[in-house]
């Protein structure tokens, strides 16, 4: 059986003391642990009340336009032309509102020719558009929109908002005749509304057109 000596005992105690002292130092020298940052699921979502950016794509117009009850076409060209007939149709001494009828006495004629009366006529056209119109032709047709032409009136042009008078002579026989008056007859000028270019009146010539004057 071995016996410990005082030197051995002192060495053992010294070794234990060294271990105790070295423990905290080793622990202090250990590098700090790094942690990945955690993300709260609420923070990862868009904040409440924020408006997400719109996705690119074609925009839909809630009102596509087109003909409607008293509406104009939504996509009408900017600065387009709109020619129409205004006021009344003047024949002899009678002012005849568009779409109505009148009796005109033969005595209003300025001339008689081959059993027919020659009357002075006049009507007015206006450009309601925002752009000027180029040259166009006004005509008067008998008994139908495309009936025989009784009068032709060329117009060199009409600025926006302006009016122009067409006048001349009509040769009418006694009895009733439908007169169709067309501004820009043949639709030479592109317009926003072509439906208001033709108006008519019903004229009854009463009397004898065979008298010489």
TrEMBL record:
Keywords: Signal
Domain of life assignment: Bacteria
Statement: the UniProt record of this protein carries the keyword Zinc: no
Signal peptide stretch: 1-27
Keyword Signal belongs to the record: yes
Pfam family for this entry, one: CARDB
Span of domain CARDB: 121-199
UniProt-annotated stretches for the region Disordered: 23-73
Coiled-coil ranges (or none): none
Full protein name: CARDB domain-containing protein
Species assigned in the record: Marilutibacter spongiae
Lineage: Bacteria, Pseudomonadati, Pseudomonadota, Gammaproteobacteria, Lysobacterales
